[in-house]
TrEMBL record:
Gene3D superfamilies: Aspartate Aminotransferase, domain 1, Type I PLP-dependent aspartate aminotransferase-like (Major domain). It comes from Neiella litorisoli. The keyword Protein biosynthesis does not apply. This is 8-amino-7-oxononanoate synthase. Belongs to the class-II pyridoxal-phosphate-dependent aminotransferase family. BioF subfamily.
Amino acid sequence: MSNIRQRISAALQTQRQQGRWRQQVVRTSGHGRLLAHRDGQFQINFASNDYLGLANDPTVCRAFVAAANEYGVGSGGSALISGYHHLHHALCQQLAELTGKPQVLLFGSGFAANQGVIGALIKQGDLLIQDKLNHASLIDAGLHCDGHSVRYRHNDLDSAERQLQRQAAGKLLVTESVFSMDGDQAPLNELAKLSQQHQAMFMVDDAHGLGVIGEHGLGASCLEPNIDIYMATFGKALGVGGAMVAAEQDVIEYLTQFCRHYVYTTAMPPAMAAAVSAALTRIVDEPDLVRSLHQRIDFFRTLAQQANLAVLPSTTAIQPIMAPGNDRVIAIAEQMRQRGFAIGAIRAPTVKAGQERLRLTISASHTAQDIENCVAALSDIMGRMQEHFE
Ligand SMILES: Cc1ncc(COP(=O)(O)O)c(C=O)c1O
């Protein structure tokens, strides 16, 4: 056996032994309020990033299908060779207007955008400063970049400032707007100010903010104008897939030339750009959609607190409930599944060991009854579990 094969089998064994095994569940329905699985079971979907229910929205689907019928299903090339279509261009203009930034680049995924931007911007002698709880795509970008990468304590301005005081040729501070596993928000105004004071560029990953926070849900750029590099994904509240980076003209031109994750990859299908554009238009034209999401979040939190569930202080669509221990968190999620609710069981390494949690997400497509039933089931299961694990 080669060393690589030995390592593979050892890693798989450890993963199983530590209760960290992950696997796909085959879904047979579209992604919406209800999920159907191959075993014929249905669950109400509290495990989604489709916060506004747009993944299956008829208007968004029609835009996708119409563009695919007219222009085909693939872009056929990278953006700088032959893959850039007028639907990409139109989406970039829509996004530039929305974020108040002069220019926008589209990426195949948020993971690629974060890796690409940081790899292109951070060079030897530079300092990348990030929140400790940033997403894996940002943390990994820091590990692989040419400069020095440091982290500050989660949402801690003193800790961020201590890192900003380090000497470096160039500095980039990066935070998420809404943290993906905690649902809490970064102090964007203060971080922007600190970045300016220390001549650092300020980058925000708004993956879980666009469609949820800011005026009419239009994201972090409504809350803080001094974001130098604004990144968001289209696979969460917009319900589609792909990602964007918005910034001043020079930065976007630089990324267009030097960002390898932009240059050396197939452009997203034009039909996807049409679908993203339709999703954005729905959010802008129908503010009730975002309003109804927030009503449901408030309703969930009121019920969860009444039921004494250990919900974290989040006012976004991500509503984690702490349930430390791999066995415990998996057992609760499995019992919820049996009762007809899909929820995420989050374990290490996604979160620190000992901070295992249920990740529930609220969607505008949930009914009040869905939320009531979900909280009642959780409260019952977690109450019984308490006795079992104590
Ligand atoms: C904060 C954050 N950034 C980036 C990403 C990656 O985005 P994408 O799913 O488009 O690759 C995610 C997705 O999980 C995320 O939660």
